[in-house]
Design brief:
It is built from eight helices and no strands. By secondary structure, the chain is mainly α. The protein folds into two domains: 107 residues, no CATH class; 150 residues.
């Protein structure tokens, strides 16, 4: 089916964050190398081309991915296997039955509590599952073909996992960023764009490293590797859009936390979530944003 711009009523809801219609249409050669020529729409996501059953199946699959993401988020920083043992209540350690482990639905039916001990389960679990469900539908509708969709899903998964680990532990783990950088370079190499991907990854890392040196610790080494991961996947100018939006989001959140006195000037504020948010926006709308500012 040839690419087309859906009408306003059919655009995926999250497009409302940025509005519809670009001053200049996104040229076909910009954006992630592995996604070039597959974009369904410059500013909106082509859900009008998808049936309700397809959207529902994709959402369920995404929620299952989100359930696995929760396992990774909880266990990886603790250096615990993400495979064994099975899911357990964080309070009483009783294994969670399959019927109580259905993404989102089980949390709602159990009212956010463990069936065995009644301990409260964090709302983060259904939040991550819902987020991955939305992102899965979004990736599927924004890209065409198995390789671009696989790359988009992996990238979205990594951004979600990195975000919540950084929020919980103020850590961006090498066990995530190093394989992520390698995966991004492989996807780009599959489309003959290994050199631009390498340059984008190195340039993004160098920029964050320079800020780290100049700010004397305002960022961490994990942010450098995260920037490289984003550059490896998104290339140029996607990585520039991601970093710009990340700095903007980080600044707004930081100022807000200081203004509300929720953080002090010397308190560390995780920057990874802001970078990841900017990267996800750039994944879907990087081409259009770049065309808007750099026609």
């Amino acid at each position: 089916m040839p690419p087309r711009r859906p009408d306003a009523a059919a655009v995926f809801p999250i497009v409302l964050t940025f509005g519809v219609g670009a001053r200049n249409p996104a040229p076909p050669g910009r954006g992630p190398a592995w996604g070039r020529g597959t974009r369904m729409s410059a500013w909106g996501l082509g859900t009008a081309d998808m049936g309700g059953v397809e959207v529902a199946v994709l959402a369920v699959f995404g929620a299952i991915l989100g359930s696995f993401a929760n396992v990774v988020i909880h266990r990886l920083p603790l250096e615990v296997s993400i495979v064994f043992p099975g899911s357990r209540c964080p309070h009483c350690q009783v294994p969670i039955r399959a019927v109580d482990n259905v993404p989102v639905l089980s949390y709602l039916l159990l009212r956010g509590r463990c069936r065995s001990c009644g301990g409260r389960i964090s709302a983060r679990y259904p939040l991550v599952e819902l987020l991955m469900a939305i992102l899965t539908v979004a990736v599927w509708s924004a890209f065409a073909g198995p390789l671009p969709r696989m790359a988009g899903l992996l990238f979205a998964f990594l951004m979600v996992v990195i975000t919540f680990i950084d929020l919980d532990h103020q850590l961006i783990l090498n066990r995530i960023t190093y394989p992520g950088i390698a995966a991004g370079l492989l996807f780009s190499a599959a489309h003959g764009q290994i050199v631009p991907a390498l340059l984008s990854a190195a340039g993004a890392a160098a920029l964050i490293a320079a800020i780290l040196v100049l700010s004397r610790g305002g960022m961490g080494g994990g942010d450098i590797k995260l920037a490289a991961l984003i550059g490896a996947f998104l290339g140029w100018p996607g990585v520039a859009v991601a970093l710009f939006l990340g700095f903007m989001a980080g600044g707004v959140v930081g100022i807000g936390l200081l203004a509300l006195r929720l953080r002090g000037r010397k308190d560390a504020i995780p920057f990874g979530p802001a970078l990841a948010a900017g990267a996800l926006v750039a994944l879907f709308w990087g081409e259009a944003i770049a065309a808007w500012y750099w026609p």
